[in-house]
Specification:
Layout: H1 3-6, E1 23-27, H2 31-42, E2 46-50, H3 54-63, E3 80-82, H4 85-89, E4 94-97, H5 101-111, E5 120-123, H6 136-144, E6 152-156, H7 161-165, E7 170-175, H8 179-189, E8 194-199, H9 202-224, H10 228-249, H11 260-271, H12 276-285, H13 290-296, H14 302-317, H15 322-332, H16 337-345
Parallel strand pairs: 1-2, 1-4, 2-3, 4-5, 5-6, 7-8
Antiparallel strand pairs: 6-7
Helix pairs in contact: 5-6, 9-10, 9-11, 9-12, 9-14, 9-15, 10-11, 14-15, 15-16
């Protein structure tokens, strides 16, 4: 599927869509998937969470907790969990994907035969597939056919899973080429502690979520090196410019990157102590090896893989992304972090843009 196909809105949604309580499958029992599933259940939706680990399925069903990924959080008692992919999606009107992007294609292939042809496919995972350099919407179209874009919704925004689970005020954006689909997702998630905006720029929302994780690693490296607030603010600003350049090359709207899925998510992930990607960068800046950092982590830092996929995508499209390039070199080519920063500062002088 081409980007031009993605930018052509379609109107193939079933006519009987309403804003009533939904039957929703959430695919992925990590911190983000669990937090979103808990929120959906608390909002009155019939919500079934799929998790890979049998012990996690048993814990959620018996204790209404996820001590591995969301310790200390009590989940809504109506939230159910299953280890069966088939059971998770049968009869569900919204399928929310929240698995790591690098394994999503395989999971989706297993799910596809059991998904209702009119079900909305929503995605809250952030990243670009390394093998194909595709966004999640492109993966979905490849597995399920281009017609899925008539019912595809991309979710993103400045949201840490723990804070959403704690019912702290949060905002996200739901992007779709079909306003009916995005409004259904908006209605399912919205509550006094979670405000959802709709958007039509699927490409921009997806790219913002992928690129911000790479920039967050770079921000963490700067903090770990002790470079101060000036350097971090400059890196976030120039990182936003890189995100915008890639987005423009792929047909996204510049305004998206000034919103929740762009600047909002970028600031959060580059500055918040709950950011896994910033933590990876911080420890790199302090001198730890990447393999040792990842071995300590229970959860996936998508920016590690996305640094390579975003870097390769930028090269394919001829887009200049020097921060992404240096982050890639630090992560995958063992370039010393301090040397990478020196090289960034020594680039040819030019006008801001």
């Amino acid at each position: 599927m081409t980007m031009n196909t993605m930018n052509n809105p379609t109107k193939n949604m079933p006519a009987d869509i309403t804003a009533t309580a939904e039957r929703i499958a959430v695919i992925g029992g990590g911190s983000w998937g669990t937090a979103l599933a808990g929120r959906l259940a608390a909002n009155g939706n019939d919500t079934l969470l799929w998790a890979y680990e049998p012990e996690l399925v048993a814990e959620i069903n018996s204790s209404h907790t996820n001590s591995t990924y969301l310790p200390g959080i009590n989940l809504h008692p109506t939230l159910a969990c299953t280890g069966s992919l088939e059971e998770s999606v049968l009869g569900r009107g919204i399928i929310l994907l929240v698995t790591p992007v690098q394994v999503l294609r395989g999971v989706l292939k297993q799910l596809a035969p059991y998904i209702d042809k009119n079900a909305i496919i929503a995605n809250a995972s952030k990243g670009i597939e390394l093998e194909t350099l595709q966004t999640v919407s492109q993966i979905c179209a490849g597995v399920m056919g281009d017609a899925v874009m008539a019912r595809y919704v991309a979710l993103s925004g400045p949201t840490f899973a723990r804070e959403v689970a704690q019912e702290l005020p949060s905002l996200i954006v739901a992007a779709s080429l079909n306003s009916t689909a995005s409004e259904r997702v908006q209605a399912a998630f919205s509550c006094p502690c979670l405000r959802v905006y709709t958007n039509i720029d699927v490409v921009g929302v997806e790219l913002g979520g992928a690129v911000k994780n790479v920039i967050a690693i770079a921000a963490g490296i700067c903090d770990g090196l002790g470079f101060g607030h000036n350097a971090r603010a400059a890196l976030i600003t120039r990182g936003l410019a890189e995100m915008n350049r890639l987005g423009q090359a792929m047909g996204a709207q510049a305004s998206t990157f000034a919103g929740l899925a762009g600047m909002g998510d970028l600031v959060l992930t580059c500055t918040g102590d709950l950011s896994r990607n910033r933590t990876v960068g911080f420890k790199l800046g302090q001198g730890m090896k990447l393999a040792d950092i990842l071995a300590e982590m229970h959860m996936v830092a998508e920016g590690v893989k996305s640094s390579e996929s975003v870097y390769q995508l930028a090269r394919r499209l001829g887009v200049e992304m020097p921060i992404v390039e240096k982050t890639y070199q630090i992560l995958h080519e063992d370039k010393p972090a301090r040397q990478a920063v020196i090289e960034l500062m020594a680039r040819d002088l030019k006008a801001e843009g």
